[in-house]
Design brief:
With 298 residues, this protein is mainly beta. The chain is built from 2 helices and 22 strands. Strands 1, 2, 3, 4, 5, 6, 11, 13, 16, 19, 20 and 21 form a 12-stranded antiparallel β-sheet that branches. The longest helix has 9 residues. It is globular and about 50 Å long.
Length: 298
């Protein structure tokens, strides 16, 4: 089936037997329906997968949450066991010729239902994602939509610094975790960007978060540049001391994470969070000038 230049196919891929592939002649993405909702692949047609694939992909985790890699939807703040509700069951999918809907059964342990809508641009290397969390409980809950994309290393994650202004007032919170080592060589705390490198030889994890009012983050790896854009509401409350952007790395994976506002969801109500992805071929270089020049083209 197709819509203009967007082609939808049912394919096996990466150990999963029931997958949906969307392609527009340039890039393709693959979502499995054996578990999820989860997008397992993003890349140029015939090229490498930019997303991380774990060795035992294709094997479900039973009653335990399992990181299958790729792009997933969680709910924040991070609390065990609620956040780690297993997504190991088959999901429903709907295709209307333009948008692919990935619909998870209601999580038995939380009463929350997850859904991701995926729309691939037919004429550009862009993807629009709409994430939904619906409260199926008989009582209200307070949650935030949390979209996590697990990228394959090695590579460099790029986060914009606030524009330089000569004034006394602060411009953003920068949030660290107990294991964050700001002296680790994987970090660059620059004037225009914060860089976090994914190094397969590095065993210790690193994580940070921030209030990203500029509403974008990027990742460069293996001749590809990935940019995601997302909203920021200055009047909203965000988890983790005000973060709408976070990143976590260990070994050969790194997560580019975005969060929506913390919201009280009444019974039957839904919250939404959007991301817009762009994928391009290229490299970013090491200096801030080179990075700025590469990203300006996107």
């Amino acid at each position: 089936m197709s819509s203009n230049l967007v082609k939808m196919e049912k394919v096996p891929w990466g150990g999963w037997q029931n997958c949906i592939k969307l392609s527009n002649g340039q890039i393709e993405l693959i979502a499995t329906t054996d578990v999820g909702p989860r997008i397992s692949r993003l890349g140029f047609i015939g090229g490498d997968n930019l997303f991380k694939e774990f060795a035992d992909v294709g094997k479900t985790g039973g009653d335990t949450w399992k990181n299958y890699g790729g792009h997933r939807l969680w709910h924040a703040p991070e609390i065990k066991p609620r956040t780690y509700a297993p997504d190991n069951s088959p999901i429903q999918h709907e295709w209307d010729g333009k948008t692919l809907k990935l619909i998870q059964p209601v999580e038995q342990s939380t009463g929350i239902q997850k859904q991701i809508e995926v729309t691939l641009d037919p004429s550009a290397n862009r993807v629009h994602l709409l994430h939904r969390l619906t409260n199926k409980n008989q009582w209200a809950v307070e949650l935030a939509a949390w979209a996590l994309t697990v990228m394959k290393g090695p590579g460099t994650a790029i986060f914009p610094q606030e524009m330089f202004v000569s004034q006394l007032l602060p411009v953003r919170p920068l949030v660290l975790w107990g294991y964050t080592d700001m002296a680790d060589k994987r970090w660059t705390w620059g004037k225009k960007y914060v860089l976090l490198r994914c190094d397969p030889k590095a065993d210790q994890p690193q994580k940070f978060g921030c209030a990203n009012t500029l509403s974008w983050a990027a990742y460069a790896s293996n001749g590809m540049i990935f940019v995601k854009r997302f909203p920021y509401d200055p009047k909203a409350t965000y988890v983790d001391f005000g973060c709408n952007t976070e990143s976590y790395t260990r070994n050969d994976m790194i997560e580019i994470e975005t969060l929506g506002p913390l919201t009280r969801i009444e019974p039957g109500a839904t919250i939404e969070h959007t991301e817009d992805w762009t994928l391009a071929k290229g490299t970013v270089g090491e200096s801030e000038g080179e990075i700025q020049s590469a990203l300006a083209k996107l």
